Every structure is written in structure tokens, then in C-alpha cells.
Amino acid sequence: MTRQEAEAIYDAGKETVVRVLLMMDARIRALEERVQSLENQLAKNSRNSSKPPSSDGFKKPAPKSLRKKGKRKSGGQPGHTGHTLAMADKPEHTEVHRVKECEHCGRSLADQSVEGIEKRQVHDLPPLRLIVTEHQAETKTCACGHLNKAAFPEGVNAPVQYGEGIKAAAVYLKNYQFLPYDRTCELLNDFFGCPMSEGTLCNIITQSHTLAADPVEKIKELIEQAAVAHFDETGSRVDGKLWWLHSASTAQATYYDIHRKRGREAIDDIGILPDFLGRAVHDFWKPYFGYDCLHGLCNAHHLRELIFAHEQHQQDWADHMIDCLLDIKEAVDLAKQSTDHLDRRQLHTFEVRYQQILDEGYAQNPLPPLPRNAKKRRGRRKKTKARNLLERLDEHRDEALAFMYDFNVPFDNNQAERDLRMMKVQQKISGMFRTEDGAKAFCRIRSYISTARKNAVGAMDALTRLFSGNPFVPALNTS
User: Fold this and answer.
1) Which residues contact 90 (CB under 8 A, 6 or more apart)?
2) Are the C-beta atoms of residues 205 and 439 closer than 8 Å to each other?
3) Best label site of 49, 85, 230, 408, fewest CB within 10 Å?
4) Is residue 393 within 8 Å of residue 279, measured between CB atoms?
């Protein structure tokens, strides 16, 4: 073998070793990324991500509130209205227990005057039963031969029917307390002696769905005209398939609807946001940004993501951003007691601090270097979750800090999350809606009840008014 042949074999061997090393390095990097991804999934819980508390299982994270400890003691505060059972001024029934004879010597005390009375009251339910009202319409024949018949009251259409109260109770139990059809019928029978069938209950639900159409349409209009509204969505099953339950709400009004889709198609079909001109508060889901209105981002979501970045990836800037956002919130809450804005000095101080934290984050999370064959590579460079969060807080700082510039904008999207919470409870109880019509009826009735309760009208009162033809419609400013 010549020297040249030996060198050629040696060079070929080096190239093979280099190729193998490069392949191994790429493989190791891919495995490291996968391990990191799996560790991230295991580390996420309801405290540091958007996962619901129900997903935490038996290993729930230890409570760790971001709120600063207050100076007041726990429990009711001075001036708080209590709910202790109180003596009634005018009881419906009074039973007098007389002293007939002396318990010591047995002498009769029947004719002796009463020196004092000790009172004790028992609050209890009266006997529960349906009250039947019979309507009798007279008929009279005039001298001219015409037969005259008195008119029945409006709504009295059948020989035997249920009244407004029992209908309202049935809808209340089914759509507000989330009882299944069979248990609702069982309760009505046990409590009121009303053996209602599931078919009748279904017809009553359908009737309330129809009667609530106009009030709920008015609720939609009120939300469309609001200065600030909250938007959110959550998964919901209809006939075994994944649908999406959407909500739009303010402090005085709530609207729910359900759709097969989650994105822009659903939002356009449902309405409100396409015509909304105020500020939409949401959780940075991109389809919301496709609408021409002001936006505000939920900082509760940001705090959870920042906690994860700090605890799981040791991102110091994330911890500093948590403190910054909470300090701004505290300053805004304090300023709200006497004014409707922060002064320019405070705004400038917070803006500078916010930018400094972003600069710190960028220094800690530089963009990854381009690969050697970058000219042939398409698409964007892969970024870490911390880098993506950092860029969101930078590019959408006006939306993230909207609560600082406009006191009408809340710090988070808690209003929408509270409004969706009971919808998730319904799903946990029932599992799913059997039909689309049933899901639509539930959303409309729940929109009506939720709006009524936000305006200090009880659910039973609102439903009774619905069946009586005098439904509740809020006339308040929903800004």
C-alpha cells in the first residue's frame, strides 16, 4: 500500500467519524429537547399554567398566594352584615305553654297571674303541596239569542296545566342547580307532590328557551355596547363530540353560546365581538386579535406562566416581572380610592422598570444561532417558551398594561373565568349534552339567569317573571 492510499483511507475514516459525531450530537440535542418537554409537562399544574385545578390529581401544589398578607384578621370585618338566625317580630303561629301547677308542692297555679314569658322560636317549612286554582268561565245567552262566554286569563289554555311557579322551579332545578331530568322529577314529586314526567319537564325547558329569546338578544346588545367586555371559551361535549362553549360578559350581563368550532368561524357566527368597539379582555388567544377593537390581556395567565419560567427554568427576569405587575396592580388599587388615573411620574417609573426587566430577559434568552445550512432552511428559528413569553410581553405591552392606563380595565380576565366556572361544573355532573338543541337551550337559559343574578334578581324570581310574560331585562350601563 502506498503512502497516498493510506492517507486516503485515513481521511475517509475521519470524515466517517465526524459524520457519526454530528449525527450523535443532533440525536442528543433532540433527546434533550424531548426530555425537557416531558419535564415541563410534568411540572405544570394549576398554579403555574392554565391547567384547571381538577387536573392536579392527588398531588395538588401547596397553596402559595401572590397576594401580600393583609393587616386585618380573618373572618367577618366590622360592619359586615351577618346571617345569624334572628327572632321574628311577628311569628305566624304562637303556642303558649302554661304553668298549671307547682313542680315543688303540686299546688294549682291555673288562676295565678303570669309574671314573665321566655320566648323561643322554631323556623321551619310549611307543608309543601301544590295549590290548585280552578278558573270557571261563565256562559250567558242574550235575549237576542247570542251566546256569550267569559274569557279565561291569558296563559290559561288547557283544561289542566302547570302554573308559573312550578315551571320556574323545574327550570331552576334543572338548569341552575344542574339536577338530571330524573332527579328533578323525583324532587318535584317528593317536595310538592307533583309527579312530573321527564317529557313534560323537557317541554317546560323548551318553553323557557323560547321565552328567553328576546331578553337574551337584548343582553347581547348590551354587551356589544359595553366599554369593556370579557371573552373566553372552553371545551364542551355534545353527543360525544368536542364542541366549544363561548362566553362574553360584563359585570352586569352574561352571554353564552355553543359552537362546533373554536376560532374565528365560531366567533363570527355567535356575534358580539365582530361588532364590538370597546376593549376586549381575553387570554391572548390569537383569533381575538383579528377583530378591530381595543384589547386587554389577562395578567393572571401571565403570572402563572412567569411562575413556571422562574421555578422550572430559573428565569430571574420572570420573578422580577411578577413583582413589577403586582406592584402596578397595588398602585392602581390604591389610586382608585381617590382618582381615576396614575400620575405621569408613576407611569414613567413603571414603564422604565418594565422595559429594564424585558432587557434582562432578552439578555438571558438570546435567539438560537442559525444552523449552517440556514439559507436552505425555511420558517422561523425555534424559540423557548420563556423567549415567546418575553416577546409577547414586549410586543403587546399596551394590552398587558391596559389596566395601568385605564382604570376601567381589570388586571385579569377573572370575570369571564368566573362566568365559565359553573358551565364546567355542569359538564362534570352530566358529562355532555345529548343534543345540539339541548345545549343551545341550556346556554340561553343560563345567560338569562346569570344576568339576572348579576343585577340582584334571584334565579327563581327571574324565571317566574319569564313564564308570566314579564321577563327581566337589565337596563343598566354595562361599561
Assistant:
1) none
2) no
3) 85
4) no
Written in H, E and C, the secondary structure of the chain is CCHHHHHHHHHHHHHHHHHHHHHHHHHHHHHHHHHHHHHHHHHCCCCCCCCCHHHHCCCCCCCCCCCCCCCCCCCCCCCCCCCCCCCCCCCCCCCCCCCCECCCCCCECCCCCCCCCCCCCCCCCCCCCCCCCCCCCCEEECCCCCEEECCCCCCCCCCCCCCHHHHHHHHHHHHHCCCCHHHHHHHHHHHHCCCCCHHHHHHHHHHHHHHCHHHHHHHHHHHHCCCEEEEEEEEEEECCEEEEEEEEECCCCEEEEEECCCCHHHHHHHCCHHHCCCEEEECCCHHHHHCCCEEEECHHHHHHHHHHHHHHHCCHHHHHHHHHHHHHHHHHHHHCCCCCCCCHHHHHHHHHHHHHHHHHHHHHCCCCCCCCCCCCCCCCCCCCHHHHHHHHHHHCHHHHCHHHHCCCCCCCCHHHHHHHHHHHHHHHHHCCECCHHHHHHHHHHHHHHHHHHHCCCCHHHHHHHHHCCCCCCCCCCCC
pLDDT score, position 68:
65
In angstroms, rounded to a whole number, what is the distance separating the alpha carbons of residues 163 and 133? 9
User: At residue 326, does pLDDT exceed 90?
Assistant: yes
Q: Which residue has the higher pLDDT, 6 or 174?
A: 174
Angstrom distance (rounded) from CA 458 to CA 441: 20
- And the C-alpha cell for 32? 434533550
Domain ranges (residues) in the chain: 1-26, 162-292+432-478, 299-366+384-411
> Among candidates 423, 420, 404, 419, which has minimal Cα distance to 297?
404
Task: Give dist(CA 348, CA 129) in Å, integer.
Answer: 67
Give the C-alpha separation, 133 to 162, whole Å: 10
420, 425, 428, 433: CA torsion to nearest 10: -60
Contacts of residue 34, Cβ cutoff 8 Å, sequence gap at least 6: none
Would you call 289 exposed, middle or buried from its count of C-beta atoms within 10 A (0-12, 13-18, 19+)?
A: middle
Cell 377583530 found at: 291
User: Nearest CA to 367 among 398, 336, 391?
Assistant: 391
Residue range 101-112: average pLDDT?
87
Q: Which residue has the cell 370585618?
A: 77
Cell of 282: 381575553
Q: Which pTM value belongs to this model?
A: 0.78
Q: Determine how many CB atoms are found less than 10 A away from the CB of residue 11.
A: 10
CA distance 108 to 55: 72
